[in-house]
C-alpha cells in the first residue's frame, strides 16, 4: 500500500497526543489523520477544529467500527492501553502504544501475542531507541564487544516532582490540555515514576541488550499523592546476570533528564550517558572503543517513532526499534517491581 497515505486514528487525544503525535502525523506527507477519539464533547470538538480532523468520536469502539484505518496511536491513560490496543489489533490495525505498553505483565504479553496472531506490529515510542547511538550500542553488545553480560546499572531521573505529586506540570502551562493527576499521580491507576518515566530507560536497555528478566526485588519512596517518587530495584535475568535499577522524580527543573546505563561483561563494560552524551566501551584488554556523539545528540526523539510507525502502516520494510517484546520486557520488570515493593519479597516476572 506504499502508493497511498497511511490512514491514522488516535485513541486518547489528550496532552501528549495533541502536543506531539497529532502534529507529527499532520506534518507527514505520507499520512492522513483520519479520526480522533477522546472523552469530553467540548474537548473533542476543540481537537477536531484545531487539527481539521474529518471524524471525531467520544466512543473509541464507534471510531474503529466506522472509519477504515491502517494504524492507531493509543495515547489514553496507562490503565486503558491493553483494552484499546487489543481492540485496534482486532480491527486489523498496526498500533503505536504509548508507554507503558500495559500495566501488568499478562496484559503486555497478550498485546504482543495478539499482534503476532494478526500479523501486525506494535510500536512503543521509546524516543531514545530511535537514536543512532542506540543502534551502535546494540551492535557493539550483540557483536561481543564486552563479552557475556554479567551485571547492569541503570539510572534515570527527571524533573517531575510536581506531576508525580498530583500538581500541574510546570512545563505544560498554556497547553491545550495538561497531564491529568488521575494518570500520573494516582497509585490505583498506575501513576508514579516507574510507569511514567523509568519505563523509558528500561525500553532503551531492552533494545540494546537481548535479556529476559526473571525476578525483581524493590523498594520505593512515596510522593505526597502516594505514588513512587523514587524507585530502587534489583533485577535478575534469565541468563543469571544481575542489575541495579534506580529512578528519581526530583531533578531540579533547570536540569535535563538523566539516563546513565552501565553494562558489565566478561570482557569489558559499556557506558551510555544521555546527559553527558557519552558512549564508550572499556575492554579488559585495553582495546577501548569511543563513539563520538555530537552536541544535542543525547536528546529525546519525539517525532521519529511516529514517522516510523507511519512507514510501517504503509507497508515499508523499516526497522521497528521499539517493538512489542521490548515494551513487554519493560512492563515485566515494572510489574514485578511494584509487587515486590508491596510484598517485601523477591517477585517473579
UniProtKB/TrEMBL annotation:
One of its GO terms (molecular function) is nucleotide binding. Coiled coil: none annotated. It comes from the Bacteria. Residues 136-270 form the GFO/IDH/MocA-like oxidoreductase domain. InterPro entries: Gfo/Idh/MocA-like_OxRdtase_N, Gfo/Idh/MocA_Oxidoreductases, GFO_IDH_MocA-like_dom, NAD(P)-bd_dom_sf. Residues 7-124 form the Gfo/Idh/MocA-like oxidoreductase N-terminal domain. PANTHER family: BILIVERDIN REDUCTASE A (PTHR43377). This is Putative dehydrogenase. It comes from Prosthecomicrobium pneumaticum.
Amino acid at each position: 500500500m506504499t502508493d497511498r497515505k497511511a490512514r491514522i486514528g488516535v485513541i486518547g487525544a489528550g496532552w501528549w497526543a495533541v502536543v506531539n503525535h497529532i502534529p507529527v502525523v499532520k506534518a507527514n506527507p505520507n499520512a492522513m489523520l483520519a479520526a480522533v477519539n477522546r472523552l469530553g464533547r467540548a474537548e473533542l470538538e476543540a481537537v477536531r477544529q484545531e487539527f481539521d480532523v474529518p471524524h471525531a468520536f467520544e466512543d473509541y469502539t464507534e471510531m474503529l467500527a466506522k472509519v477504515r484505518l491502517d494504524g492507531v496511536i493509543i495515547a489514553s491513560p496507562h490503565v486503558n492501553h491493553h483494552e484499546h490496543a487489543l481492540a485496534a489489533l482486532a480491527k486489523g490495525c498496526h498500533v503505536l502504544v504509548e508507554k507503558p505498553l500495559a500495566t501488568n505483565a499478562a496484559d503486555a504479553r497478550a498485546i504482543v501475542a495478539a499482534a503476532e496472531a494478526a500479523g501486525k506490529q506494535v510500536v512503543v515510542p521509546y524516543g531514545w531507541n530511535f537514536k543512532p547511538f542506540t543502534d551502535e550500542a546494540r551492535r557493539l553488545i550483540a557483536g561481543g564487544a564486552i563479552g557475556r553480560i554479567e551485571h547492569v546499572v541503570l539510572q534515570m531521573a527527571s524533573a517531575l516532582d510536581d506531576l508525580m505529586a498530583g500538581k500541574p506540570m510546570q512545563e505544560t502551562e498554556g497547553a491545550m490540555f495538561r497531564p491529568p493527576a488521575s494518570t500520573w499521580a494516582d497509585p490505583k491507576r498506575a501513576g508514579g515514576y516507574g510507569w511514567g518515566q523509568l519505563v523509558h530507560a528500561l525500553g532503551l536497555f531492552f533494545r540494546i541488550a537481548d535479556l529476559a528478566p526473571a525476578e525483581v526485588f524493590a523498594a520505593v519512596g512515596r510522593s505526597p499523592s502516594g505514588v513512587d517518587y523514587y524507585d530502587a530495584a534489583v533485577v535478575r535475568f534469565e541468563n543469571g546476570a544481575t542489575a541495579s535499577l534506580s529512578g528519581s522524580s526530583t531533578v531540579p527543573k533547570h536540569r535535563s533528564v538523566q539516563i546513565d546505563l552501565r553494562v558489565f561483561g566478561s570482557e569489558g563494560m559499556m557506558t551510555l550517558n544521555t546527559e553527558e552524551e557519552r558512549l564508550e566501551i572499556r575492554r579488559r584488554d585495553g582495546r577501548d572503543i569511543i563513539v563520538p556523539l555530537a552536541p544535542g545528540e543525547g536528546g529525546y526523539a519525539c517525532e521519529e517513532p511516529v514517522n516510523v510507525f507511519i512507514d510501517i502502516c504503509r507497508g515499508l520494510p523499516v526497522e521497528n526499534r521499539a517493538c512489542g517484546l521490548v515494551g513487554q520486557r519493560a512492563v515485566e520488570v515494572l510489574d514485578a517491581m511494584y509487587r515486590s515493593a508491596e510484598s517485601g519479597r523477591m517477585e517473579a516476572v
